Amino acid sequence: MRDLIELTLETEGYEPVIGPISGSDLLLQRQEQKVLLVTEHWRDPVLEPAQLERAVDRADRVDAEGVILVCGGRIGAPARAAARRRGIRLIDRGLMLQWLSQSETTAGRRPD
Asked: Which residues pair with 67 in a beta bridge?
């Protein structure tokens, strides 16, 4: 899961700065912007707004301007609204399944 996310974000121009930091967090950079990739909630059944606030606090401690948070469980309306207010990019199970499908399709194409 983490490899898929890192490879996909790499295609968007993100590069690891340092990491992992404090367990599962990874600091990424794209141009001048640093973001904190948080994957610890991958196995949580539901993402709560309080978890977003803790991610923002951790991002502040490492001088990251943004947060990308991964959750494989349900992301309800309150958490999505909190993410929009705080500028947090959410990666959910559905998006990861799309990425996986795209990577399998691309891998299945072999030059003649």
From this structure: 36, 88
23 backbone φψ class: left, alpha, beta (φ>0; ψ -120 to 50):
left
Q: What is the mean pLDDT of residues 36-64?
A: 91
What pTM value is reported for the model? 0.84
> Which residues, in sequence order, are CB contacts of 7 under 8 Å at separation 6+?
103
Measuring CA to CA, which residue among 51, 112, 104 is closest to residue 82?
Answer: 51
- Return d(Cα 102, Cα 60) in angstroms, integer: 33
List phi, psi (to 5°) of 101: -60, -45
Report d(CA 90, CA 75) in Å as an integer.
9
Helices (H), the chain: 2-11, 49-61, 77-86, 93-108
